[in-house]
Design goal:
Blueprint lengths: L15 E5 L5 H13 L15 E5 L10 H4 L1 E5 L6 E5 H7 L1 H12 L6 H6 L1 E3 L13 E4 L1
Parallel strand pairs: 1-2, 1-6, 2-5
Antiparallel strand pairs: 3-4
C-alpha cells in the first residue's frame, strides 16, 4: 500500500520571484502573487503547510485598475469607537502609497488562517525599480 507523500517543514525550498507591476491590472496581478506566496505552483503543495516562495514586486506606482475602479472604489474601516469610521479612495491611496493597495489586495485573497502573516512577510513591495535583493531570483515574471 502506498502512502501520500507529505513534505516536512525542513524540506521546503523557497525561491525568489521578481514581478514587475508596470501596466498590470491589480486583481490579475494579485492572484499571481498569491499563488507564489502559497506555493500552489509547486508539486509538493500542501494546504496545511507554508511552502510558498518570496515575492519581490517592483514598479508598484505604475499599477493600473480596470473599469471605473479608480474613481469609484473606496476602502472603508472602523475603529469600533463612535465616530471611528474612515473612508479612503483608491485613487488617493495609489498616489500616496501604492504598496498598500497591493498589500490589501493580496491580503484579501489569502485564506484567513495562522499561515497568512508568515506568507505576507515574504512579500516585498517597492514603488520603483530599486530593491535591495540583488540576484537572488530564479525567474522573472511580468504581466
Amino acid at each position: 500500500m502506498h502512502k501520500t507523500y507529505q513534505p516536512k517543514a525542513g524540506e521546503v525550498k523557497r525561491n525568489w520571484h521578481l514581478i514587475d507591476a508596470s501596466e498590470s491590472v491589480l486583481g490579475r496581478f494579485s492572484t499571481q502573487i498569491v499563488k507564489l506566496l502559497m506555493g500552489k505552483v509547486k508539486a509538493s503543495y500542501s494546504s496545511h503547510m507554508d511552502s510558498g516562495d518570496y515575492v519581490v514586486v517592483i514598479n508598484a506606482k505604475k499599477l493600473e485598475l480596470s473599469g471605473k475602479k479608480e474613481f469609484q472604489k473606496v476602502y472603508r474601516s472602523h475603529s469600533g469607537y463612535p465616530g471611528g469610521f474612515k473612508e479612503t479612495k483608491i485613487a488617493k491611496l495609489l498616489k500616496e502609497s501604492p504598496e498598500k493597495v497591493i498589500l490589501h489586495s493580496v491580503s484579501g485573497m489569502l485564506p484567513d488562517n495562522r499561515l497568512k502573516s508568515a506568507r505576507l512577510r515574504r512579500l516585498k513591495i517597492f514603488t520603483d525599480e530599486k530593491h535591495p535583493y540583488g540576484d537572488k531570483f530564479r525567474r522573472e515574471f511580468s504581466s
